[in-house]
Amino acid sequence: MNSLFILNNINFLAQVIAALEITKVRVPSSYSLSRDEGDTKPLILGCDYDIDDEKSKGFVLKWKHNDLQFYQWIPSRNPVVFSAFKGHIDESYSESSDRLHKHSVLKFINPMANYTGNYTCQVATYEEVKSSTAHLQIIVPETDFSLGFQRETNGSTVVFCNVGEIYPLPDVSLRIDDQKVSDAVAFEQVQDYTGYYNVSVQYILPDPNQNLQLQCDVTIPATDYSLHTSMPYQGKWPHSDEKNETNLLKTIAKLGFLHL
Ligand SMILES: *[C@@H]1O[C@H](CO)[C@@H](O)[C@H](O)[C@H]1NC(C)=O
Ligand SMILES: *[C@@H]1O[C@H](CO)[C@@H](O)[C@H](O)[C@H]1NC(C)=O
Ligand SMILES: *[C@@H]1O[C@H](CO)[C@@H](O)[C@H](O)[C@H]1NC(C)=O
Ligand SMILES: *[C@@H]1O[C@H](CO)[C@@H](O)[C@H](O)[C@H]1NC(C)=O
Ligand SMILES: *[C@@H]1O[C@H](CO)[C@@H](O)[C@H](O)[C@H]1NC(C)=O
């Protein structure tokens, strides 16, 4: 094998790489749906690429959602949207007037929770095919987020944190005096039609008489979404009632003993 052959090969590769390269697939890691109409920020997915105009014969740009193609654009034609996304993409949206970039960007109309998934931008010419993928997580914000406690009649105090109607399933954790509670019990429910989650995390205080700082943290894995709230907890102070009760019991016991 002579070195000239290798050199020629490297040259050939370098030219190929320069002709078409996806530099960035602009997919946010998460997008929060708004519960109030009109307060929505747009969901835009972009595909940035460098392309050599002279080697752009046969140019086709495709977008796929979990390997299912839903968008195709050929320069000088209008983009075509199909399958589940038909009617859900603003086909007139454009961020560039360049012949080979005009319709590479997607602007969604009224995104839905099931838009979550892997998005692949694929750009092809007669000579090359390049693609790049990124994951989008759609978040449905909670309708309820509450931290509190309940004193049971048996003397136990249960601390709870509830998160209502959120998607996807969040991590909910309790902190007491800034220490994460590792043995709290979590209850999860899935709503029938929407698939949204209700999560309740509960914990019985080992010593309900102590003053404490309660905190609840909610996160959605692999996204920036987080919620925090905290409140002080006042132990049963002063414990005069209980002491009196105890004293009374002791007195009864003593009396009983005396009667025997
Ligand atoms: C998305 O891509 C990740 C990483 O490649 C993979 O683990 C996951 O199964 C994909 N999700 C779907 C819905 O295809
Ligand atoms: C999302 O769900 C709606 C119905 O609720 C369905 O019409 C649509 O095809 C789904 N979209 C995707 C991308 O799965
Ligand atoms: C008190 O009642 C609560 C709720 O019914 C229960 O979870 C807890 O275990 C009880 N505590 C004791 C000490 O029995
Ligand atoms: C879920 O939480 C919401 C809001 O707190 C509440 O209205 C709804 O009744 C809960 N659903 C279930 C099944 O508990
Ligand atoms: C507790 O008992 C003492 C003496 O029996 C009484 O003076 C006091 O008022 C009681 N405290 C309460 C809170 O009932």
Automatic annotation (TrEMBL):
Domain Ig-like residues, every copy: 28-137
InterPro entries: Ig-like_dom (IPR007110), Ig-like_dom_sf (IPR036179), Ig-like_fold (IPR013783)
Signal peptide: 1-19
Record's keyword terms, sorted: Signal
PROSITE patterns (alphabetical): IG_LIKE
The keyword Signal is annotated on this UniProt entry: yes
Annotated protein name in UniProt: Ig-like domain-containing protein
Record organism: Anopheles culicifacies
